[in-house]
From TrEMBL:
Intracellular or extracellular location(s): Cytoplasm
Keywords, alphabetical: Cytoplasm, Fatty acid biosynthesis, Fatty acid metabolism, Lipid biosynthesis, Lipid metabolism, Phosphopantetheine, Phosphoprotein
UniProt xrefs under InterPro entries: ACP, ACP-like_sf, PP-bd_ACP
Source taxonomy: Bacteria, Bacillati, Actinomycetota, Coriobacteriia, Coriobacteriales
Protein family membership: Belongs to the acyl carrier protein (ACP) family.
Protein name: Acyl carrier protein
Length: 78
């Protein structure tokens, strides 16, 4: 899967999980800007792991602050 494919799937998952407008999301979008609290972030990571059939390393989870960070983590997990 190339970066663009991962981006599209991450954005769709974030939009669905965070009740956000997919057209307003970019790689620079932070989860804090979407008013995500710690529980929201856990739900999002779980949704991303399910969407990509991947397991993200616990050490990486702290570093995932933006959509770009999520894409990088998913690509590293594949």
């Amino acid at each position: 899967m190339d970066r663009n494919d991962v981006y599209q799937k991450v954005v769709e998952t974030v939009a669905e999980t965070m009740d956000a407008d997919v057209n307003e999301l970019t790689e620079e979008t932070t989860f804090d800007s979407l008013s995500a609290d710690s529980l929201d972030k856990i739900e999002l990571v779980t949704a991303l792991e399910d969407a990509f059939d991947a397991s993200l390393d616990d050490d990486q989870l702290v570093d995932i602050q933006t959509i770009a960070d999520a894409i990088d983590a998913i690509m590293a997990a594949e």
